[in-house]
Specification:
The chain is of the alpha/beta class. It has 2 domains: about 90 residues, no CATH class; about 250 residues, Rossmann fold, CATH 3.40.50.200. It contains 9 helices and 15 strands. A 9-stranded mixed beta sheet has the order 6-7-5-8-9-10-11-15-14, sandwiched between helices. The protein has a 4-stranded antiparallel beta sheet with strand order 1-3-2-4. Helix 7 links the parallel strand 8 and strand 9. Helix 5 runs parallel beside helix 8 and helix 6 packs parallel to helix 7. The chain starts with 6 loop residues before the first helix and ends in a 14-residue tail after the last strand.
């Protein structure tokens, strides 16, 4: 038989329970405070000047964790950011992807990779990476060769080519677009400039106009959404991530990325995942470094990675290659629009990727319902053929009028 507990004992046990609960709350608060304090120490150590959310829906409370660390002894120097870091904070809800990413402007002379590792160790931070420079193909010199007009892709049936197709919005994330060019007038939507946060998408290089022009010359259905993230010579990952998020949130069906990184980026992958979760299809250039090393985002399996072929059908001399490449397109001396109502020749994988974006746009235009990544991949298989080469270049996208041999449809 159990003995009855006396009133004094009950009061004593209740007191112990209350003390234990209070101690637990105190420990929890202390731990949370420690995480915030640790982050504050990092901000102070590395001279945080500003924290900019990459999404306008960012949580204000999270942004407040990154307060500028002004040093009384050096107020002038503290407002001159020297290095950029991108941090992704841990989120409870996967639907809030990209709403927890901030660009930190730091005043530090330390190795930015080591700074990233320090922030990565914070319990509040999911990922920390340098604000990587993007690789964008430089402009190619015009050639004296007579231009060959590009035609609508083979995916457009001849009997329907004269009909008005359903428009498909294709985001060109690039150096801007000359929306006043005769070939582009009426075939663009108002875009955004992520360099100065304005609607001015004037092309400062010609790369973006050329890319958009190739898409429109190869697609009857495509409509271009210009998203400027670069001056043409270079670009930053922070603008690329913000542009991908913007495109996915503005009814874009295809994103063309004639740019990339020679190494992986977890934060860029988050942006790609965000777009794919909204069934946005992404086409990316394989890069122009004549290497089998992976180039991102083209090398990721959820992205269509496009290499380039020369006029003789073999690998273009500067195109990357590898098992990660999905398909290839002839992209040597491609004639397409240039800013100021002009035209120019360019060569490279930047010119190959928009041809695939165009084919996908026309496919989506004629589809009777939503199409998955697998559906589009199967379509590309049916409109391509194997490439006989010592390089891995995926499959060659067929030109107008070509038919793939039945036996070639296995990848």
């Amino acid at each position: 038989m159990f003995k009855k507990i006396s009133p004094k004992t009950k009061i004593l046990l209740l007191g112990i329970f209350i003390l234990a609960v209070a101690a637990g709350i105190t420990v929890s608060c202390f731990t949370a405070r420690s995480s915030v304090d640790q982050l504050a120490e990092l901000n102070f150590k590395y001279g945080l000047v500003a924290a900019q959310p990459l999404d306008h829906l960012a949580d204000a409370q999270e942004v407040s964790l990154f307060k500028p660390a002004f040093l009384q002894a050096d107020l002038v120097g503290s407002v001159k950011p020297q290095q950029d870091l991108i941090v992704s904070l841990k989120a409870d809800n996967s639907d809030d992807l990209l709403q927890h990413i901030l660009l930190l402007k730091l005043r530090t002379g330390e190795d930015i990779k080591q700074v990233a590792e320090a922030y990565q160790n914070s319990p509040i931070v999911q990922t920390a990476e340098p604000n990587f420079d993007l690789k964008i193909d430089p402009a190619a010199e015009p050639t004296a060769e007579v231009s060959t007009e590009l035609e609508a892709p083979a995916s457009v049936p001849a009997e329907t080519a004269v009909q008005e197709p359903q428009p498909v919005l294709v985001a060109v994330v690039d150096s801007g677009v000359d929306i006043t060019h005769p070939d582009l007038v009426g075939r663009t939507e108002p875009g955004w400039n992520f360099l100065n946060q304005s609607s001015d998408v004037t092309d400062s290089d010609g790369h973006g106009t050329h890319t958009a022009g190739i898409i429109l010359r190869n697609s009857l259905a495509a409509k271009i959404l210009p998203l400027k993230i670069s001056d043409g010579a270079t670009g930053k990952m922070s603008e690329l991530v913000a542009a991908i998020k913007f495109a996915a949130d503005h009814d874009v069906q295809v994103i063309n990325l004639s740019l990339g990184l020679p190494h992986e980026s977890a934060i860029l992958h988050e942006a790609i995942d965000y777009a794919r979760a909204k069934n946005v299809l992404i086409v990316a250039a394989a890069g122009n470094y004549n290497t089998g090393a992976e180039f991102f985002p083209a090398a990721w399996p959820e992205v269509f990675g496009v290499a380039a072929l020369g006029k003789n059908g073999s690998k273009l001399f500067l195109s990357n290659f590898g098992e990660w490449v999905d398909c290839s397109v002839m992209a040597q001396d491609v004639y397409a629009p240039a800013p100021g109502g002009k035209y120019a020749y360019r060569t490279g994988t930047s010119e190959a990727a928009p041809v695939v974006s165009a084919k996908i746009a026309d496919l989506l235009s004629t589809a009777t319902g939503p199409m998955s990544f697998v559906d589009v991949n199967n379509f590309l298989l049916q409109n391509s053929e194997p490439i006989v080469s010592r390089y891995s270049l995926g499959r060659r996208i067929l030109a107008v009028g070509e038919q793939a041999p039945v036996e070639s449809l296995s990848r």
